[in-house]
Amino acid sequence: MESRRSRGNYSGNRGRRGGRGNSNRHGSTRQHHETSVWTSSSTLSASSITDNADILHNKEILEKRRQKFENDSKNIERQKSSEYGLISRGEDMRLRDNADDRHKLFETTLSQMKAQRAQTPKIPTSKSTITTTTTTTTTTAEDKILMSFRKLRESLLSVQPDNFTKTVFLTSARFSVSLGHHQSYIPCINQLIQFDKEHEHHFKLLSRDESEEMLCYLALHMAHFKKDQEGAFAVLLYNFPDVCDSVVAHGGFGVDEKSLQGMDCCSVVFLCVYCLTIGDYCGWLRILKFLESDSVSSDTVTGYESVYSNFARLMRFRYDEVVRSLIKGIGSSYFVLGKSVLEEFTGVCWDKLVSQFDVGWSLNDSTNTVTIRQRRKK
Which regions form coiled coils (predicted)? Predict the structure, then answer.
């Protein structure tokens, strides 16, 4: 009995020990699992810390983040501002999406143009000389106007062209031509021509006079800025096939003020390019003087400058070159000329011939004659 009890006790104890043994095994497994989870999460945390540390030491990533948040901040501020951004740079989409904003900016720009024009004194043109300004530097006010027009043009590229589109592009082209800013007027002219071609079966965006004006700007740009007279003739003859007959009908290819007054715009431009091509620099200068005279430049049809005044601005791209060629021809052809005759030939007053064009000629004040070169003594 005792031994059976002992065996029973032993069995019971073994059962209890066995129970405790199983419990220990499960506890050990759970503890190992928790340890594994903790170890794994700490490994991830350590990895994340390491990655963040790497990012904090990576100047390129930090710079990209700085720019991103800076741009986001600027965009937020810009949306609150009345100053519009450029669509091409992804700065601001208000002008593209809102017609009222476009009209508002255009009206503001027109007001700025009028104010700028009032502050710019008109240089009087004498009967014997012409304006010698050929630079294309712009003021801060002019730069602001040019930028406003660029924003407007970009905003109108994605909408159906209408009269407002035409007005914006025409005004922008005329203003930038008056400044000699080819970076602006060439895109304007090309886009207007493209608009007209794309919608010619539905409606003509440009009137005949407007189309003629833009094409004449393009021809003068090619002849005077790009020095491509052949390309200029191609533009004129392709679009105005009767231009030669028109020039002949108004006095032919000789240049005088009376014949110029009876010509239309494209005929005057054609004659200008013709004189430049054959080396008739006196005729070219007479055309320039005519275009800059008060009789034609006072008739403002553009809201800023007249068409003829803008033609003259484009011609001035080659003004220095033409005058120097003329001076070279005079220097090899004459010994003595009257001062007034010389100024009439060159379109430049004597003082500017000396200071700006460095002529080595001498003026006799008593006789008012200029000695161009000395005769050789026999």
Answer: 52-79
Distance of CA 17 to the CA centre of its chain: 93
Residues whose CB is less than 8 angstroms from the CB of residue 284 and which lie 6 or more positions away in sequence, other chains included: 255, 272, 275, 276, 315, 322
User: What is the rounded distance in angstroms from the CA atom of residue 218 to the CA atom of residue 228?
Assistant: 11
* Start-end of H helices in 240-372: 243-249, 257-261, 265-278, 281-292, 294-297, 307-315, 319-333, 339-346, 350-355
To the nearest 10 degrees (0 to 180), the angle between helices 182-198 and 163-179 is 150
Distance CA 361, CA 331 (A): 9
- The DSSP code for 81 is S
What token pair was written down for 164?
């407002």
What whole-number distance in Å separates Cα of residue 264 and Cα of residue 129?
Answer: 24
Cβ atoms within 10 Å of 236's Cβ, excluding its own: 25
Sheet order of strands, 369-371 included: 336-338, 369-371, 362-364
Residue 24 pLDDT > 70: no
CA terminus-to-terminus distance, the chain: 168
Angle of the 140-156 helix axis to the 99-119 helix axis, nearest 10: 160
Mean per-residue pLDDT for 52-68? 67
Distance, CA of 87 to CA of 159 (rounded, Å): 13
Contact 343, 313 (CB under 8 A): no
Confidence band of 259 (pLDDT split at 50, 70, 90) = confident
pLDDT confidence of residue 135 = 55
CB 263 within 8 Å of CB 308: no
Give pLDDT tens digits for 301-344. 444 458 999 999 999 999 999 999 999 998 888 899 999 999 98
> pLDDT tens digits for 132-153?
555 567 788 899 999 999 999 9
Amino acid at position 330, single letter: I
Beta strands 362-364; 336-338: pairing state: unpaired
d(CA 142, CA 115): 11
